[in-house]
Amino acid sequence: QAQLQQWGAGLLKPSETLSLTCAVYGGSSSDYYWSWFRQTPGKGLEWIGKVNPGGSGNSNPSLASRVTMSLDTSKRQFSLKLSAVTAADTALYYCARVVKNNFYVNAWGIGTTVTVSS
Amino acid sequence: QSALTQPVSVSGSPGQSITLSCTGTSSNIGTYNFVTWYQQYPGKAPKLLIYDVTERPSGISDRFSGSKSGNTASLTISRLRPEDEAHYYCSSYTFDYDFVVFGGGTKLTVL
Q1: Which residue of A has its CA nearest to B105?
Q2: How does the average pLDDT of chain A come out, rounded?
Q3: How far is residue A67's CA from residue A24's CA, in Å, rounded to a whole number?
Q4: Least CA distance to A33: which residue of chain B?
Q5: What are phi and psi of A108, to 5 degrees?
Q6: What's the confidence (pLDDT) of residue A61?
Q7: CA B107 to CA A88: how far, in whole Å?
Q8: Is B99 close to A94, i.e. CB distance below 8 A?
Q9: A60 Cα to chain B: minimum distance (Å)
């Protein structure tokens, strides 16, 4: 059973770049998409982006221009950067393991609360 | 506004059965059998309940069952228990993103 441990800065100023990293402990890596989601009381759960085992990926069109994701297979880590943050990016951010071809999450990180405030 | 539509709240009494709905479009639920249901308690990450419309992961009670008709998916919880009080979210693969979208979640209250 995989465990996902995530970390990153929790307080940002507008226009800064959000940076989060997620480490994967246990389980294989080839059968999954490595993904980021966020959750807010107002908008609920939202997919941010995913990285394929080979390192390629895509992101939510509403965020794509600001999202950069990477995968370090040697460290079993994947990362998210979201540039030019605003108050609207304040949310609880989760890293997650999504089963390929079935598109469900079977492992979540604990979540990182990110607050954007001047 | 979420891509999938769920009622904001539902309530039921212990022992009853309730059904939560999740309405999408032909771009997601109506075409693909990749509907997922999650249960979430306050301060916790979502927990997988149902995947592929009807499948239960090991360890999930058979009181939880899923179905789909047209553009609407449903989660039925039978023999309600107080510990079922939580938020429930549906998700579906969508052609629009080539990934997943979510409903806004339903708060289940067990009276």
Answers
A1: A44
A2: 94
A3: 21
A4: B99
A5: -120, 150
A6: 93
A7: 24
A8: no
A9: 7
